[in-house]
Amino acid sequence: MQNSLYSFVLVDDESEIRDGIRDTIAWEELGFRFAGAYANGSEALEAAERNPPDVLMTDINMPFMNGLALSERLASVAPATKVIIISGYDDFEYAQKALKLQVFDYVVKPITPGEFKAALARLKALLDEERLARQDEERIRSQLAESLPHIKERFLNKLIAGKIKGAALAERVGYFNLPLPLSGAAYQCLAVDFAQRRSGEEFDIEILSERNVLEAQPGQGHNRIFFQDAEDRLVVLSWGTQAASLYREGLRAAEAMRRDLLSAGLGDTVIGVGEAVIELESLSQSYADALRALQIALLKGRTGVNAYRELGSRVGSDRHSRPLWGKAIASALKLSNIDDCRRHLNDMTEFFKSSDFELPEYHDSLRLVLAAIVQSLDDLDIPVREVFASGGEPFAELQQLKSLEEVGSWLNGLFDRVLAYAGARQENFAAAKVREALDYLESHYADPELSMQSLCKELYISTSYLSANLKRYNDRSFVEQLTDIRIGKAKELLRSTALKTYEIAERVGYRDPHYFSLSFRKLAAMTPTEYRNRHEPQQP
Question: Which class for 445: exposed (0-12), middle (13-18), buried (19 or more C-beta within 10 A)?
Fold first, then answer.
């Protein structure tokens, strides 16, 4: 309560007035606490310097220092203090001086208790407004401080994308207090990614671990900045005096990063090394080089350090001599020849694994292959929606795949779906896949690694496709179906064996016996032990 009250100090050379005001006002009811009374301006000023009050009421005529002089001095030593001047003189000159000093109020004696309370009410309203404004400002500053790392990363992403230049670039570097020279230096980007990304929280933990390992390297922090790009790859921005020496140092640093990541158990990483540039505004080129080296390494299934300048010649020089994979695959699909489809796909995969190429050329090849397949669907009178997930964007989805292995798996799955539909039009493909999924769950429920992703990989379908059709044909989600099977098998074991609960949990695919017990109770409305006791054979 005391912390929310405003402090009030009275200055008057008449003790009767000081005592009367102090003793007749219900201060706390009005939102104030009486913090002191002084007989002259000098004493009041000395006290205000030590502990500035929220409000100071002063008489004008006093010994040593009058009220106007006190108000003037308070403006410099306690500028936030609100001043009320009380005077027995209804003198315009005094009032004019008070206005110049920006005092809150000028009151002529005698003042009634009602008038005094009204003045305090106006004063409290102003103080409340100022307190709220301060709290809002403090909250905004606190939010800004919390958000600053994210704002800085957004700026760095704009920098490597080439979206910020000139005066704005210099202003932002200064604002974020980055030790980044604006000129007279060379700059380079490295890009770091995982060959196989995990999902969800596991990926967040891995990227944080990766960043901690690299930022803890000896000598870091002076000429390097670490941050994540828009695709959650780790980017290392470094600078030095000369481009040639910086490039060599970048290669050595990348190799050191690779060793440290291996030592930390983060071995499946890929590092792309970009060229050094001599202007900060050209940093986007170094980042693009690093990204291209990294992406091509990922496509070819490589790990370790990959430099842009070591990529070799461009595939564009022999683009017209490359086989027409799309036409060959489409022809094989029309003949329902799955072996030829996969042979042509393997030929394309091996070509890109063994060749140097530009990413645009690679993506053009994929688009041509997919376009030929889509055309073949039209020729076979197969609706596109039957082989692609509902609402999916196959061209965008294909382009997002990071490795040739992922592309091969995706296209093989597409081949299977096309040929399944063409070979058995009377049987609904989606219903068949649901049956396959249920059969697979029945035979693999004991595998603790069993997941929607692993099941879909076996069936060559997407997770969204299976999820939608499980719900459509079986009215259950993947998790619900798998849990039903596992708990059903657990019930059989509880009735027919003397196995411990944790042994049964392991046999039906649960690593954690506690989680098994929770799942069992949720589905069976009783614990495994209660279920076993209830179903024990009755003794004669």
Answer: buried
